[in-house]
Amino acid sequence: MNPLAENSLHVCRREFFGRSATGIGTAALASLLTRDGQAADRVGGLSDLPHFPPKAKRVIYLFQNGGPTHVDLFDYKPSLAEMHGRPVPQEYIGEKRFSTMTGSTAGKVMLAPIEPFQQHGQSGAWVSSFMPHTAGVVDDLCFIHSMHTEQVNHAPAIQFLLSGGEQPGRPTAGAWLSYGLGTDNDSLPAFCVMTSVSKGTTCGQIFYDFYWGSGFLPSKFQGVKFRGSNDPVLYLNNPDGMSRSMRRGWLDDIARLNELKLADYGDPEIATRIAQYEMAYKMQASVPELTDFSDESEATLALYGPQVKEPGTFAYNCLMARRLTERGVRFVQLMHAGWDQHGSVTTELYTQCRDTDQPSAGLIQDLKQRGLLDDTLVIWGGEFGRTPFLQGDINDRPKWGRDHHPYAFTIWMAGGGVKPGIQYGASDDLGINIAANGVHVHDFQATLLHLLGIDHERLTYRFQGRDFRLTDVHGNVVRAVLA
Q1: 449: Cβ–Cβ under 8 A, 6 or more apart, which residues?
Q2: Is 248 exposed, middle or buried (0-12, 13-18, 19+ CB in 10 A)?
Q3: Which residues, including other chains, have CB under 8 Å from residue 40's CB and lie 6 or more apart?
Q4: What is the structure's pLDDT at 308?
């Protein structure tokens, strides 16, 4: 007997209905929900979401791979300058674990901020001269100076921050929101990803696909990566000799075959295949319009800086992010590598800031002038910070560096229901430990979901007998940052 047919004979009643709920049942429910009522402004998503009125409708995550140095950018510590060149006080370190590149902290010396800090705006936020454009929008930003995490290496720390788990296999935040909230545009994916790296950097990080994966959720909800080229999504164009009407006919015939299999097995991956073929067909029209910047004014392009017309740059991706969100995309994840400055904090940090500072600030200004910032949550930050003490030889300034530091670091958020112009939490006087109002990764995730109208304890997915959620079994909403 055919093994697939034999397997179907052993499907129990409970398993049949469970499969149907994620396959045929979901498709039927989607067909019943029209543009009236709960489905009026979106395509897909769960019928019971949002749990309460959201402040944000969409997210742009400006993820800075490699760990930006908090003590050189946003977390001003005068004591670092006073202790420059002196050994790190061991009472600040205790039994803390650092990367193998640091090894023992004994004998490590403190390193002063590379560039001076000044206060800016009515909020008086301290910002380094590395970030002059961000300094100009501080009254729109909410700085969290008390972030902390549990991982000291890049991939598990990034995965932990994005998915709530340190190992690949968990859905990322964008996949959870795509699954729970759907999208406001059925011609573009609900979750889009773009990557970039500064030219000439020696410390770029690998962009693993699981950073935007759907984990155990149906793969329909994984992020769709837009490449940094004039052909951003592969295989959208028709092969030579195939017309659009011919492609439509082929897709219809393939869909019918897939629907037969879906009816037999109820496998959500078959439903994913049907949906993704249809999405690709729609994107043949939507993507060329999306990537055509000819309707952008010169004043708008100038906000993002000189690299804005160069595909693959962070500036280009920031403008693409604004265009995606205004077209109804739920979650846009930009990942920019190069912050892993073990021996280049006096050299490549300048390049990183030059390539990312103006586009980040320009995005805030652009969203604000279009009335989009109020319901768009923008997040800037990495997986951890950098050590306030030196990695390298104090006498060899061109090779100064800082190692990974998970125990205190800074992120900022803007729009989407967070208080503007505030600084929340604090690290100690050397930027090593949390001194007040610590925000753990799971607290951050709970707050992110809350801003989108989701109770983080109620958005779950059953897998292997357990109800999983983004925040695992932890997390508290940081209500002090909510507007």
Answers
A1: 176, 455, 456, 459, 470, 471
A2: exposed
A3: none
A4: 97
Looking at residue 41, its pLDDT comes to 61
Query: Scanning the structure block, which residue is given the tokens 């935007």?
Result: 212
Residues in the chain: 483
Q: Return the structure tokens found at 14.
A: 């409970």
Beta bridge partners of 335: 63, 195
Q: Where are the beta strands (DSSP E) in 361-458?
A: 376-381, 385-386, 404-405, 409-414, 422-424, 426-427, 434-436, 439-440
Cα separation, 301 vs 309, in Å, equals: 8
Report d(CA 40, CA 32) in Å as an integer.
12
Quote the CA–CA distance of 393 and 400 in Å, as a whole number.
Answer: 7
pLDDT tens profile 425-440: 999 999 999 999 999 9
Alpha carbon of residue 249 to chain centroid: 37
Residue type, 20: S
Give domain 43-232+298-481's CATH number out of 3.30.420, 3.40.720, 1.10.3470, 2.40.50. Answer: 3.40.720
How far apart are alpha carbons 214 and 211 in whole angstroms?
9
The predicted-structure confidence for 41-52, as pLDDT tens digits, reads as follows 678 899 999 999
Q: Which two tokens stand for residue 366?
A: 């652009």
pLDDT under 50: residue ranges of the chain? 1-40
DSSP H or E run through 194: strand 191-197
Question: Any idea where the domains of the chain sit in the sequence?
Answer: 1-32+237-290, 43-232+298-481
pLDDT of residue 34: 36
Encoded tokens for 103: 């090894």
Res 7: pLDDT = 46
3-state helix, strand, coil in the chain (%, to 5): 40, 15, 45
Contact 228, 311 (CB under 8 A): yes
